[in-house]
Amino acid sequence: MVGRVTAGIIAVGTELAIGQVLDTNSRYIAQRLSAVGCDVREVLVIPDDRVAMLRAFADFSSKYRITTITGGLGPTADDFTKEILLQLFGGKLVEDPATLQLVTERLAKRGLALTPRNAEQAMVPSSCEVLPNKLGTAPGMLFCQGANWVFSLPGVPFETEALVDEQVIPRVSRLSTGKPLQRVLKIYGIAESYLADRIASWEQRLAEHFSLAYLPGPEGIRLRIDSKEPGTPALQEELTSYVEELKDLIPNEFYGEGDETLPSVVGSLLKRKSATIATAESCTAGRLAEAITSVPGASDYYLGGLVTYGDRIKREQLGVKPDLLARFGAVSEEVAGAMAQGVMERLKAEYGIATTGLLGPGGDGSKTPVGTFYWAVASRVGVTTGRALLSSTRAVNAVRATYDALNGLRRVLIGCL
Amino acid sequence: MVGRVTAGIIAVGTELAIGQVLDTNSRYIAQRLSAVGCDVREVLVIPDDRVAMLRAFADFSSKYRITTITGGLGPTADDFTKEILLQLFGGKLVEDPATLQLVTERLAKRGLALTPRNAEQAMVPSSCEVLPNKLGTAPGMLFCQGANWVFSLPGVPFETEALVDEQVIPRVSRLSTGKPLQRVLKIYGIAESYLADRIASWEQRLAEHFSLAYLPGPEGIRLRIDSKEPGTPALQEELTSYVEELKDLIPNEFYGEGDETLPSVVGSLLKRKSATIATAESCTAGRLAEAITSVPGASDYYLGGLVTYGDRIKREQLGVKPDLLARFGAVSEEVAGAMAQGVMERLKAEYGIATTGLLGPGGDGSKTPVGTFYWAVASRVGVTTGRALLSSTRAVNAVRATYDALNGLRRVLIGCL
């Protein structure tokens, strides 16, 4: 795409470089910049090292129209982003009265007095424009290098995100030549190579000015179709017809687009039916409840649920019959079904959903193979169950089990199971 | 530190560069390489772009002793890491019989036949050493550039992690000049700038050959102390005495070291008491159960719990009295306490822990401010409660609420509340 605004993202922090902390800020910034049409060329993580910082700041600010730098602005001695920016862009440290006032007010609200350490946060290079930080003590800063912009932002994720949304994106949007054309289709229940075979002839027909990318993850596969040219209405229409053809090839596996998630899709289906749901979790131990309630407004359809880790709790709290547990074991289709029905009845919900499985690494002493997993969905009509053999780590298996169950619920709700 | 093995990490993928997918592989690799003494200098994310890939691969492999590249090895047309590696290191594509056999066996286990697309995964540059991938179809590869090593690894996280552990780390360990000396202290319940003030005189006394870093996050603050010199027994002893002094300055806030987490610390305390616990969650909706069960062996002390989203479920499933709900509202100390007691009694546990709060962004129509949160811990002796005013996004508030409750439980268990 001609004339796209180029962007580079730098995250500073030894804790990030050595992997002690996961850098989520860069992803957030990349997402936001891409959404307004920027071409993100590089994301770089470097340690708190003055030489590496100066080199990277100088390199990026000369190459890219937009550079963002997160981190290194804290009140402690291991933070020196401000010092390097001063070195690169000149000026001297001056007190920013607005920042000082913001910091004082924030502390006062929590009943705390301003300390000298906090007051230092209001000292900024005279060469920058201050970007007020409503959620923390370190302000954002904007520097200009010729036509190029360098945004320095604090590294605390919710502060970074607020400053990106309120200060960076509005400014960058004004430079942008238009949103890139893109569709992202969400797919669950088919492996990447089989999906590629299923849609191979469609992919071959796809016009050259579109590109296709496969993004597999525990929440299924995302298929991203990008246009390489600026989005015109004709191109938009062409893309729409490709997407409709694609959906017809994967009618049961396609579940949503863009920001839609399995929990949000399931939530919309429940809302449309004015139905409520309750959860009974063994191996997923709260993850299903968490996923369902991650959707704003989930209280409209989610009543609550039980985490029934041991057999006794399954019997006493969900009414699972002792002989079912004895005959089939806790990890069985029968017990999953009884759990789903039990929670539906006890919480008086229209639907009950349950999980039971052996996520590993160890087994339960029975013959059930590690990785065995069952989900069940109960309604007034009956019980639907599904099975999977999970083969990854405990943590990944837990996520897959959660999504498998949600996808089962989705298919029950749309009537394709 | 003189003579440390330098390392650079590259992650390839447009989905990573535009922020559609969070890059967790680089963090994993950085962690593992650092743990065996490597000096991770750069972590770089670039899109699936042949020019950017070739430039970055050439640059890193000439600069760093160890380079890792993840991604771009999938069976679909948008993956071309192998092509670029062939261009850079020479050779031609040849079939690797061992990989072909592994892939065929993997598919057979799932009842699937080998497709041509899968078979292509066994074609590797003749210039590399193949690193077998037991969990997926794309093998890892090792290339040499003079004395420098370049590892190419698939991008699916659990495959990457297994290859790093089984193939990369054993080789790199042999190069390493010894583990760096490091201690990481975990602290909960004090803000970064107040912690810095509290330990200021200790920090000033800290010898120059140690460096201190503050890593704040929702799970509290990690204080990392690194030695800049190779770890000798004398240095080790010196560090230990610094750490003991530091702990004495924050007796209630210090909760663990290294890989210890609030859930693992609480788990150890419960195990030591041979006590069981049950959860009753309103606003955290499963996160508390999830956190507790993230620790292997949690079934020794965790019985299960309830997610009671609505008032009716709180009354019916936990026995919270209607007049408590009417007088104080669901978000109150009184209701939190009744929930903790209710779940302790109903599940016959030694301890009950409960959460209730308004995580935002919207309120509940009452006068309760958004962000109000209560936790409660019940035991046969009585009920302990705590309160917080959370001021971040819904998702961050949920994590903080979960950790606040766990920290409350920890303090109850160690008898400092």
Describe the overall structure.
The structure is a homodimer of 417-residue chains. Chain A is built from 16 helices and 17 strands. With 417 residues, the first copy, chain A, is an alpha/beta fold. The first copy, chain A, has three domains: 169 residues, Molybdenum Cofactor Biosythetic Enzyme, Chain A (3-Layer(aba) Sandwich); 78 residues, Alpha-Beta Plaits, CATH 3.30.70.2860; 153 residues, Maf protein. In chain A, strands 2-1-3-8-7-6 form a six-stranded mixed beta sheet, with helices on both faces. In chain A, helix 3 crosses helix 4 and helix 11 runs parallel beside helix 16. Chain A is globular. Chains A and B meet through helix 1, helix 2, strand 2, helix 7 and helix 8 of A and helix 1, helix 2, strand 2, helix 7 and helix 8 of B. Chains A, B: It holds the Pfam family CinA. Chains A, B: Belongs to the CinA family.
